[in-house]
Design brief:
Layout: H1 2-22, H2 30-35, H3 42-53, H4 56-69, H5 75-98, H6 104-110, H7 113-130, H8 132-147, H9 149-153, H10 157-210, H11 215-225, H12 248-258, H13 261-268, H14 273-287, H15 290-294, H16 296-305, H17 315-323, H18 326-364, H19 370-391, H20 402-426, H21 432-452, E1 456-457, E2 460-461, H22 464-485, H23 508-529
Antiparallel strand pairs: 1-2
Helix pairs in contact: 1-10, 1-18, 3-10, 3-13, 3-14, 3-18, 4-8, 4-16, 5-12, 5-14, 5-23, 6-7, 7-18, 7-20, 7-21, 8-10, 8-17, 8-18, 10-11, 10-16, 10-17, 10-18, 10-19, 12-20, 12-22, 13-18, 14-23, 16-17, 18-19, 20-21, 20-22, 21-22
């Protein structure tokens, strides 16, 4: 009862603070609703970036992958820090100079309105099919593992998953649809502090439990008994071969952090370009701490529970229930609930933004005023939320683990999108028709070789991350050749049209260099420990 009461009180407190901070905002104004009136300071940008990304599909999915494969899966977190450097130094200045509200608007400036609308549609399909259901399902799995909802309500585990999916979805929809970006960002920041504290506490308590009261003894036990799981350098036949870090792993992270609307929209709401760069690089520093709470708990679970947990997605909830004192379970559950809401409502808000600005105003009713666009975006968001809640439980029992399945399916969309956005920025000659073919054809080629041919390239076995990179290279070459053979006469906005004329944060390049060096040091030191 104490844990449940603390959960309710903390969740209500976050909701009250978010409402109080945004109660006087004009949500009928499109800039206020979709971009928080460009008023976010750097620390709110950083917190919102982290919480939009960090949720139970990370806590449960990535720790589950670590339980199965070891520290090699930390690449999803650590390489993300390098992608954030790319966002701060290259993409963000160009976005700001273009004065855009959504990433697809870049393609309208460079190509045409139809290309923008195709990309908006792809973003919506990606978020609805490959993100929102995973967040809801993993969140429901985590909350059920922490609070034993099935036992509490006397229902089956499947029934409790459905109940929690709808509870999370309804509360998250209220934040996203009625609060706007500022409410989402404020709640993200509050929950971010709690999640970092709680997330770091779990591996500490786990090591103490392994060491019978001594964290040092617990760490020694891990280093002694799980040595083969410590090195982040994956062999060619492992889940993430080391070579993939320089191909598909890097590209998927660049897509996610540099062109994914749900992520970069947080930076569009910053007070200035410099403030946005500060927030992005602060988030990069925080990502380097990710292995402590997104990988280490999975390694601890191997030592604590052995191989009895099956697919691994239950490793993190089981560890939390094992090591967390009952008096803190409610607060950690509230923080976890906040992380779930953060990812869900951030993606849902981005869907409302994309549909309202790019589809409704861009195609259906170009003369619509700001209040009409916001209203239609909210209605669309409600329908999407219901659809995602119905779809979420269907993804249960993924054979490769929740996190791997999400990334593998995501590559269908994100590699073609990244290729087209980059070509829009760096090439003067690529025509609109080639960009459209690449957006749609790139999905088809990835699906054909990855699933149609059993992850082989003309008979040669290939890791799906390598094929993602090959697909990216193929699409870029196709667009460049198309630009040489039949350039579009409309091409008027050259690459320099996206150069920044906003004042950048002066230390940005120095801080970026430090992030790169720390990333290298982290890989080298863990490899030495695991050798």
């Amino acid at each position: 009862m104490i844990s449940f009461l603390s959960f309710i009180l903390f969740t209500a407190l976050v909701g009250f603070i978010s409402w109080w901070r945004t109660r006087q905002d004009d949500h009928g104004d499109a800039d206020n609703y979709f971009l928080a009136g460009k008023s976010l300071p750097w620390f709110v940008v950083a917190g919102s970036l982290m919480l939009t990304n960090l949720s139970t599909e990370q806590l449960i999915g990535l720790n589950g992958s670590a339980y199965l494969s070891g520290t090699i899966v930390m690449a999803w977190e650590v390489v993300a820090a390098l992608a954030l450097v790319v966002l701060a130094l290259y993409f963000l200045p160009r976005y700001w100079n273009s004065g855009i509200t959504t990433v697809p608007q870049i393609l309208e400036k460079r190509f045409d309105a139809q290309t923008r609308q195709i990309l908006s549609g792809l973003f919506l399909v990606f978020l609805v099919l490959n993100f929102l259901p995973f967040v809801l399902y993993s969140g429901a799995l985590g909350m059920n593992g922490l609070f034993k909802v099935d036992e509490l309500l006397g229902v089956s585990e499947t029934g409790s998953i459905w109940i929690m999916v709808w509870a999370i979805g309804i509360v998250g929809s209220i934040y996203a649809i009625f609060g706007g970006l500022k409410a989402v960002a404020v709640s993200d920041t509050i929950n971010g502090i709690g999640l970092l504290i709680g997330g770091l506490a779990i591996p500490i308590l786990g090591l103490i439990a392994l060491g019978d009261g001594s964290m040092g003894d617990g760490l020694d036990r891990i280093l002694t008994n799980q040595t083969e799981k410590i090195s982040p350098i994956g062999e060619s036949d492992s889940a993430i071969p080391f070579s993939t870090l320089f191909t598909g792993m890097l590209l998927i992270n660049v897509y996610y952090w540099c062109t994914n609307q749900a992520i970069v929209q947080r930076t569009f709401g910053a007070k200035s370009l410099a403030e946005g760069q500060k927030g992005v690089l602060a988030a990069a520093g925080l990502k380097l701490l990710g292995p402590l709470y997104l990988v280490l708990p999975g390694i601890i679970a191997i030592e604590m529970f052995g191989s009895e947990l099956g697919n691994g997605d239950s490793a993190y909830p089981r560890l939390v229930a094992e090591v967390l004192p009952p008096s803190l379970a409610g607060i950690f559950g509230a923080v976890m609930f906040g992380a779930i809401l953060s990812s869900f409502n951030s993606a849902l808000h981005s869907c409302s933004t994309l549909f309202g600005l790019d589809i409704y105003k861009g195609i259906i009713n170009p003369k619509a005023d700001g209040r009409r666009v916001v209203l239609i975006g909210k209605i669309f968001g409600m329908f999407l939320a219901i659809f995602a809640m119905c779809l979420a439980p269907v993804i249960a029992n993924a054979p490769d683990g929740l996190f791997t399945l999400m990334k593998k399916l995501g590559a269908i969309f994100n590699i073609p999108i990244l290729a087209v956005v980059i070509m829009a920025m760096v090439s003067r000659s690529v025509p609109a028709w080639a960009a459209k073919i690449s957006l749609l054809g790139g999905m088809a080629t990835y699906c054909y070789f990855t699933w149609g041919m059993g992850e082989t390239f003309f008979g040669t076995p290939m890791h799906w991350l390598h094929f993602a990179a090959l697909n990216f290279a193929f699409l870029c070459i196709f667009m460049l050749v198309a630009g040489k053979i039949k350039p579009d006469s409309k091409v008027a906005v050259a690459a320099e049209g996206f150069a920044s004329n906003n004042e950048e944060w002066r230390p940005a390049r120095i801080i970026s260099g430090a992030v790169v060096l720390i990333t290298l040091a982290l890989y080298v030191s863990l490899h030495v420990l695991g050798s």
